[in-house]
UniProtKB/TrEMBL annotation:
This is ABC transporter substrate-binding protein. InterPro entries: Peptide/Ni-bd, SBP_5, SBP_5_dom. It holds the Pfam family SBP_bac_5. The keyword Ribonucleoprotein does not apply. Keywords: Signal, Transport. The keyword Signal applies. Belongs to the bacterial solute-binding protein 5 family. The lineage of its organism: Bacteria, Pseudomonadati, Pseudomonadota, Alphaproteobacteria, Rhodobacterales. It is found in: Periplasm. Residues 70-449 form the Solute-binding protein family domain. It comes from the Bacteria.
Amino acid sequence: MEKRSVVQGAILAGIVAVLPLGVMAQELRVGVAALATSADPHFHRAGYNFDLRENTSDALTYANGVTGDLEPRLAREWKIVGDTEWLLTLEPKAVFASGQPLGADDVIYSICRVRNVPNSPGLYTSFIESVADVTDAGNGQITIRTKTPDPNLLRSLSNIGIVENPTGKTLTFDDSTCGNDNWLETNGFNDGSISTGIGHYKLASFTPDTEIRLERNDSYYGTPAGYQTVTIKSLPDNSARIAALLGNAVDVINAVPINAIDSIETAGNIHLADMPSTLLIFLLPDQHQEPTPKVSGTDGKNPYLDPRVRRALNLAINRDEIAETVMGGMAQPASQIILEGVFGHNPDLAPYPYDPAKARELLAEAGYPDGFSLTLTAPSDRYVNGAQVAQAVAAMLSQIGLDVTLETFPRSIYFNKASAYEYSLYLAGAAADTGEGLSQMINLAATRDSKPGWGGANRGRYSSKVTDGYLEKAQSTLDDAERESLVRAAAKQSHEDDGIIPLYHELGVWAVRDGVHFEPNANLLNIYYTARPE
């Protein structure tokens, strides 16, 4: 259970002295593999949108991807009043671009809006699922009541940017519309007519698929950002991203491709910043539809409904070879969802062996001695070496008698198709958005849509009442040891069901021009406000 030290509140303000004003009037230029699809802080639950939100729209708290700690943001302090009641003190110095100070009505409106974002391809509702009520407690405080005890409440709310309430009134919180029909439009955030909230940076311009420009918020209540402006360029092509860095067009790039390591290390004025990440790259087979898309040779059956077929896929993949050869050592082979060292990782789960002979045997037992035809689908521009990994997986599956066709789509198309269940076997990724494993398990292994926000990344629709039961109980268990035991049990069950086919946890790697301090983090977010000239 998170505990908040009184000292923390003073730290944010105190660090300002570390940054002389003269070094802050500069531009940071960044090239990213995937640009945010919207400036709306509640529009789409995806890593590249978390990036922009974290820099421009503070939440009540911040789950630090470097230390793992929960830190104050718009809530300067908090305490647990009872098993299901939290009292939060809002930051009195936090002011919106309009000049209006942060109030309880803004928090209530923002949390209510999460359920009411039109045309969202991935809502943030799982982060607020446990919230039963939010009320103004007076004196700059709010009370949040939960449906059941929720030890990760403030970690979940660290993903919800707080925007200014346009209604002029305090809403009454409920599980639907909160009695309101005046919801800010996503296009207004994108064109700059609506402020994204209170953050280290303000949005200066948003050009989809091209460029985002940020300006330092000089009215920010805490530690000021280290650069006056940040220009974020969309450079999905690996070669173009590397060329921009080596050609001095950008100062930082993320998702460093494997084949660029040598050229970066020999450039002389560029260094690497890296750390293990919670991002799991995995395959998901369709475990719902029959027949399933893009599969033939099965007499109309969905072969992935048979656990023997799913186990065969797991045994057919040489994870060590993918991590070492395809990923150039910049990955850690995975046989479970949660990264080692992260809350909820189960140390008792043995790695899946590479055993193609056993895989062929299992296919024969399932009624497919000659295999069947399938399509493996992957994004072409979302994950480091993602397309190459998919090619390697396709070759491995072919070795057990499966006739595999590989197709790739740009991410702008890929995830919409995945959400429409147009794939039978697809590659994707999911990270621990709150910095611990429970949220990651709920996002990936919980039955999709069994509760609002559950199974957001589970487009294969793996479903287990046993797994769900462990996760549901873990959500309301305040005791850390008991909660971790439940998460580990859920991980064990999903492992035994072969509901997910884990491949590896990606190593987060940035390339940074000398003279720039840039912090990597396990959540693979690009945090621009901690960057500074050296």
